[in-house]
Design goal:
The chain contains 4 helices and 10 strands. It is of the alpha/beta class. The longest helix has 10 residues.
Amino acid sequence: MIVAPLSSGSAGNAYWFESDGTAILVDAGLGPRETKKRLAKLGRSIDGLAAVVVTHEHYDHIRGAERIARRYEVPVYLTRGTLDASTIETAETKTVVFENDTSFTIGELQIHARRTIHDAADPACFVIEARDGTRVGIASDLGFVS
């Protein structure tokens, strides 16, 4: 599995996960142009993106999600609380709502979502599992460990 942090911090958060021909972006705190530029430096292409998966609705995590989803015709995965607290326009942006503490599949990746403690509507962290059993966890903006 390829894991590439593209940006971390208050200026924007974005992480690329890729395995077995499936690539996802966890958080999209950068716009499409900057995301594409940073991926190119890593020899990756945003054209292969399957989905954007969002941890929570804060601007530094979601700023580019809607524009990336529309430009590359991919869905945004997020919890109901995150969607309701965001400004994402569902009439024009494909969204997939998941429940925290459940698992779902995007292409060849299994995503295990778990609720986190943060000052957001319904924040999540993820364990992303590849077909070969490789697992990577990502948790951001934790208020405290429960």
